[in-house]
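In the design runs reported in the main text, the only information available to the sequence generator was the tokenized backbone. The following block is the verbatim input for one such run; it is reproduced so that readers can re-run the procedure and compare outputs position by position.
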């Protein structure tokens, strides 16, 4: 059936500062979303979409 070849494991190319930035975005938002854009295995953009609920 399929081949059992394993893909090479890439080293973690996400820096601690990237992770910290994402955590800060998550902590600062009450309603909305965070999108992490990745190209060639590296984070190139972080998008924050915040919603304000009107009561």
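Verbatim output:
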């Amino acid at each position: 059936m399929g081949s059992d070849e394993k893909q090479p494991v890439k080293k973690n190319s996400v820096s601690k500062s990237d992770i910290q930035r994402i955590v800060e975005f998550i902590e600062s938002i009450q309603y909305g979303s965070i999108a992490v854009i990745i190209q060639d295995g590296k984070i190139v953009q972080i998008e924050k979409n915040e919603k304000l609920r009107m009561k």
